[in-house]
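Feature request, filed as a ticket because there's no other form

It would be nice if the structure record came with a short human-readable summary line next to the tokens. Right now we just get the raw output. Example of a typical job, pasted below so the devs can see what we mean:
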Amino acid sequence: MVLQGDKKKGNAEWLNMAVGKVWSLYCLSLEMAKNETMQPDIESNPAQETHEG
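Raw output as currently delivered:
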């Protein structure tokens, strides 16, 4: 027999795992979109010379 509290805990753990997976996919997609958007601007800027000393 499964107790009501154990069932809720199992549901919460499953939901937490599912949200974590979706969040990681969202972050990956967001990072890829950011890179695709910003990369042309980065490549079009002239390289900055560094002066040491």
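Something like this underneath would help us a lot:
DSSP finds one helix and no strands in the chain.
The CA atoms of residues 42 and 49 lie 15 Å apart.
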